Amino acid sequence: MNQTISNEGQRDIPGMFAGLAATTKRDLLLAWKRPGDVLNPLFFFAMVCTLFPLAVGPSAEQLEFSGPGVLWVAALLATLLSLNALFISDFEDGSLDQFLVSPQPLPMLVLGKTLAHWLTSGLPLVFVSPILAITYRMPLSVVGVMMLTLALGTISLSLLGSIGAALTVGLHRGTALLSLLILPLAMPIMILGANAVSLAATNDIYSTGIWALGAYAIASLSLAPYATAAALRISNE
Amino acid sequence: MWKWFHQLASPPHFYRISLILAPWLGISGLILVAYGTWQGLFVVPMDYQQGDAFRIIYVHVPSAYLSMMAYMIMATSGAIGLIWRIKLSHAVAAAAAPIGAGFTFLALCTGSIWGRPMWGTWWEWGDPRMMSELILLFLYFGYMALRSSIDDTTKADKASAVLALVGIVNVVIVHFSVEWWSSLHQGQTVFKKGTMDADMRIPLFIMLIGFTLLFGSMLLRRIRTEVLYRERRTRWVREMILSPGGGA
Amino acid sequence: MTHKLSGDNLTLIRGERCLFQELSFALESGSLLILEGRNGCGKTSLIRAIAGMLSLEEGTVYWDDVPVERVRQTFHGSLVWLAHRTGLKGDLTLVENLGFERLLRAHSSQDPEEVYERLGISRLKKLVLRSLSAGQQRRVALARMLLSNVPLWFMDEPFTNLDREGRVLVMELVEEHCSRGGMCVMAAHQDVEINVPTTRVKIQ
Description:
The complex is a heterotrimer. By secondary structure, chain A is mainly α.
């Protein structure tokens, strides 16, 4: 207890990627302790996929034709559902304050959180989707394409959604508002993903959609964390 | 130049300038729109393909153009407010949003009415421009909803500016993705950009200028009320209201 | 090495109300700054503004005579924040919570066990924080503060949820920290008597 304070500024601060790794690790640990938060969106995804045949009829051609679209819309809605909670607990328990006064760059902390969100929401969706795709009579070769589009698309959705989650954190009507803000922004991702899968199903050239989704993911990886960080600073004022 | 800009950014100064400018813009806009309407409805000859239906472009095109223009203004002034902390520019963004949403709605309505004789349906999902415009309307709704759900004005200004900036990046992507999408599903005939005769084009040009002037006038009036509301505690507002004939 | 934290001409307007105006202060190593005032008078806003979480209407906060926005990382690397909302996760254990903090900020070479012992929380190490009382959670937050090796402590209402013993402990810790050349900014609505050079800022 009798050491002297030897801080010379930033000498002892862990490096830039430490913040990213720290928040990713912490959020994964939290998800591990609360598996329900990970499973609920997956059940939601499966249920939305069940609703469509019940509503439009079970004929094989119709399911085959609408499968890619239905799966993509369901994935979009499931991701949106899980995004709502991205910053709320951090806001309520004061973790956000700790982020804001930490020497780590806020965009990196945010990126870490978003990465953990993708690992616990987008990635499970990618792995659950083949089961549902097969019930929609999707050929196996197309299932692979669909998994690829979902993997790329959900990265962008997580990143884009984190901006909306940051803007609405702490607001009373946050949930409904988040959907209103994010859905129009997320439309291009769904257009690219669902149509690439449809093209693959009809043996057309689908690579345009995949490349565009990849470009979108890279662009949002490099830009979205800054927007989210700015939004969090504003929301936490 | 910089000094002039700073002076304009001071609310009282802006208030006085806009008080003079708004009616002039409004009147000249009205005259141009009236002239353009008369030309468009009665003077311009009928289109050999579309008949009289095409005349709606004299409303449709200017409102579609202003719907995007208003979004640009909203996003740029939001960015200026964020970066240089100029309060007036946040007021501009707040004032531009409902007008922009209004023009977007007008563009969608006129597009739909035009679509009826052209496509035989009120709404054609396959048309990329209609889709982009619809998504733009949703973006406006999101922007206004975010603004209205944050009580603190300063916070609402900043948060909505971030949203508008994210939106403007996305508008471009929306445009291209929708273009790509509709190229995949081309069943119906999509509008072809036909060449226009000069006597059709000139009234359109006049309408564009007239609409823009009217838009400017509306924007100035809305900014003025916005500024009055935001500055309601300040001395200059009180003095102006208490002065004889003030508040006009 | 001594440090200096100062604020010049700070003004903050929140919605309709002007919380404080043209407020200035200066704080050197080894001393304590207390922000006093009734509940809801804006002392929390002031301490948040000094820590860089709220943007000020006017005025600048300086760390070692440099505006903090220019040395944000150094400044935030030199401070630790303790408030009513502790920033600890209820689902994680004490060790997991503090482990996260160790990844973000410079930490001291002290043995954590010693610190836990002193704060009376060593037997709670394996429990998730949700199962602890508010006062115990508060002590965990104090442990986080002690384990980080930084000169500047920010404490927003540090005495809430603590019993008498805990309050004395906080005062002792602040005293020790200041005597070792640290500094502390505290927002409090009670009268605080700590035996270190103290500057008081009253907010109306």
